[in-house]
Amino acid sequence: MRYIDVHCHLDGRHFDDLDELFSKLKCCGVEKVITCGVDLPTSFAVREIAERYEGCYFTAGFHPTELKEYKESDLEKITELARHEKCVAIGEIGLDYHYPDTNKPLQQEVFIKQLQLADGLGLPVEIHSRNSAEDMCEILKTNAGLLKNGLLLHCYSHSVELATELEKAGAYFSFGGTSTYSGSKKARRCIATLGLSRLLTETDSPYMPPASRAGQFPNTPESIPEILRGFAQLQGVDEEVCADKVWANAHTLFKKLN
After folding, report:
1. pLDDT tens-digit series, residues 13-47
2. Sign of the torsion formed by the C-alpha atoms of 44, 46, 47 and 49
3. φ, ψ for residue 158 (rounded to 5)?
4. Quick check: 12 pLDDT over 90?
5. Average pLDDT of span 99-119
6. Which run of H or E residues covers position 95?
7. Lower CB density within 10 Å: C or N end of the chain?
8. Burial level of 28, CB count in 10 A (0-12/13-18/19+)?
């Protein structure tokens, strides 16, 4: 079976030996990974990683909690990065109202500008949304015309009801290691309820290990087979059928994967 991790963070100091990691991924069938930028430095870093490893792709963008150093001119550099042959999306972008010092207007402004950027480049977006369901939905609804190249709600954490609404609007959803825990009832209900044609596997590495690696850090894309197995069980389909469909979904959404 072929597996894909559509959202992980392989930059930084969490991984001692990326050569060894990619060798292990090949052995366990994880043939492709998308490593994501969260600001300008990480977007450049993941580009370099993608250039070094076959089967590795990247995204470029500003995460909503990483805007302290943001300057409007930085979007020109994100645009330049996004034209790279292995940049498959603008991300990770979105809203995050978890912290008390959140600058909501700035988050919303930068989010919309990056939706516009993605539309202009013909790229999908990878969206982060935490504690922000109402504003997220309003922005997506108001800017629906900018989403014709596709959108992924990564690590989806809102309600099943909202997920079904977003599914009708063409959204994809990815879930990681937390979906393998029996206590993650919301995520597991979403996986069981949504159409298989809208599901994608991720790890959000180095975070969110699956049940078999509980408490371990860093998590790696090696966890994808376990996450996929959970998808198959919740969907009530054969594991190989599930793996094939998730693989196809990823290539439908991320058209620059090859």
Report:
1. 899 899 999 999 999 999 999 999 999 999 999 99
2. positive
3. -90, -170
4. no
5. 97
6. strand 87-96
7. C
8. middle
Burial of 143 (0-12, 13-18, 19+ CB in 10 A): middle
Residue 6, CB half-sphere, CA atoms under 13 Å: how many?
A: 36
CB of 246 within 8 A of CB of 238? no
Contacts of 49 (CB under 8 A, 6+ apart): 10, 11, 18, 35, 56, 58
**pLDDT tops 90 at residue 258:** no
* pTM, full prediction: 0.97
| pLDDT single digits (tens) 232-246 | 999 999 999 999 999
Euclidean distance between CA atoms 240 and 151, whole angstroms? 25
In angstroms, the first-to-last Cα distance of the chain is: 17
- Over residues 182-193, the mean pLDDT reads 96
Q: Which of 200, 196, 140, 195 is nearest to 176 (CA)?
A: 200
Domains and CATH numbers, the chain: 3-253 (3.20.20.140)
Kind of pairing between the strands at 151-153 and 3-8: unpaired
162: Cβ–Cβ under 8 A, 6 or more apart, which residues?
133, 137
Strand ordering across the sheet containing 172-175: 3-8, 30-36, 56-60, 87-96, 125-130, 151-153, 172-175, 199-201
